[in-house]
Specification:
Structural class: alpha+beta
Largest sheet: 5 strands, antiparallel
Shape: globular
Distance between the termini: 57 Å
Strand content: 15-25%
Radius of gyration: 19 Å
Helix content: 25-40%
Length: about 260
Amino acid sequence: MSLLHDRVAGLLGANVTHEERLAGSDLAGAVLLTLGSGKRIVAKRGPMAAIEAEMLRSMAATGAPALEVLAVHRNLLLMEFVPNDGSLSWGSLGAMLELLHAPTTQAYGWPQDYILGRVGVPNGRSRDWPRFWAENRLLIHCRHVEHGLAFRLDRLANRLGDILPTEPVPSLLHGDLWGGNILGHAGQVVGLIDPACYYGDREVDFAMLTLFDNPPNSFFEAAALERGWRERLDAYRLWPLLVHLRLFGASYASHVAGCLDRLGV
């Protein structure tokens, strides 16, 4: 019996009879375990296990279908398994986001910092949204990218007050909302995985969805986003693009530069 199986038995009081690798995100692998009862669960190991568990619980508390946390101990997170055939409608996703993004009175940010791969995600709380975005999502990358991009990011940070709303209604964000982190079955969203949650402008999650997917206009119309949201997309797209640039290399540099071009810096 492996160490993982021993730990699962200790946490859940159930023996593992089968293990297989799950196709997952680029940053965090997970395994599918079958228990003696026939129940299947997901096990994920990583340094942020406890924080990820709290993020999943926070999303579930909104009514959104985040995976249920079964147990967490040190670097091990155990979650429910849900069937995923990849099918979901944009209407189903929109209804889920309406739950997740319910208005709150929280300060922007999150109680703890986070990490995506080797890229830190600072989440220091703030009541000034452009300042939060500048300090925690843009400027932190300057010493990790080439000088020209760093100069342009600094210039954009100084102009964010003219681009982003000062006090958008704080919503709970998934924080890494692309298609691979949304599980679908029979046309419905059945689970959210791999969160990087914090409180902020709900447009951030919508911007992330436009990077690798192509939502129809009806999806955005149903969301009733604030006037000018399309002009803000590139300011919000920069965050995941900068993370990808640092994790996966220079092929993303042109995408970062394109966002900065469209923002006029």
